[in-house]
Amino acid sequence: MAESKAESRIRELETASAAAELEASYFEKLLEETRGSTKSMERELAEVRQQNALLLSSVEEQRKRLDELQSRLDKWDTRLWGLTALMIAAALSLSAGLIVALVKR
Asked: What's the pTM value of the predicted model, to 2 decimals?
């Protein structure tokens, strides 16, 4: 009877050990899968960061071009207003000259 209890206990321990080994192998497999997916995610993250850097450089170039166009627009706007003022002054001068010429007649 003492041996059967010992044998029974040994079987229980062997069963528990086998279950623990199965569980350990499951967790090892899960760990490897997680490492693989982590490496995949790290690669994807590196690609996204590279694309982000390209987009940021493109945005900076577009901002520079926009600033340059804005400065050109401001310059031409100033010139247009100056030309408009000159044309109005010329029209008024011509009108005044015509009025004086008509009054002298």
From this structure: 0.50
